[in-house]
Amino acid sequence: MAEVHLPTTEFEEADAAHGNQHGVTDEPNADAEPMVSLLSVEGELTRDETYSPYLDALSAEELLSFYSDMATVRRFDQEATALQRQGELAMWVPMTGQEGAQIGSGRASKPADYIFPTYREHGVALTRGLDLSLLLRQFRGVSNAGWDPRETNFHMYTLVLAAQTLHAVGYAMGMARDVAAGLAEAAATIAYFGDGASSEGDVHESMVFAASYQAPVVFFCQNNRWAISVPFEVQSKVPLVRRAGGYGFPGIRVDGNDVLAVYAVTQWALEHARSGKGPVLIEADTYRLGAHTTADDPTKYRDRAQEDAWRLKDPLLRLEKYLRSLGLADDEFFAKVSAVGDELAAHVRAAVVTMSAKDIGASFANVYATAHPLIAEESAWQRAYEASFADAEGVAE
Amino acid sequence: MSEQMMSMQQALNRALADTLRNDPTALILGEDVGTLGGVFRVTQGLAKEFGAERVFDTPLAESGILGLSVGLAMAGFHPIPEVQFDGFAYPAVNQIITQLGRMNYRSRGVFPMPVTLRVPSFGGIRAPEHHGESLEALFAHVPGLKVVSPADPQQAYSLLRYAAGLSDPVIFMEPKARYWQKAAVDMDTTQSPLGARIARPGKHVTLVAWGAMVARCLQVAELAAEDGIIVEVVDLRWLKPIDEATLTESVTRTRRAVVVHEGPRTAGLGAEVAALISEHCFDTLKAPVERVTGFDVPYPSGDLEDEYIPNIDRILFGIQRVLEHRRG
Question: What is the predicted ipTM?
Answer without folding.
Answer: 0.93
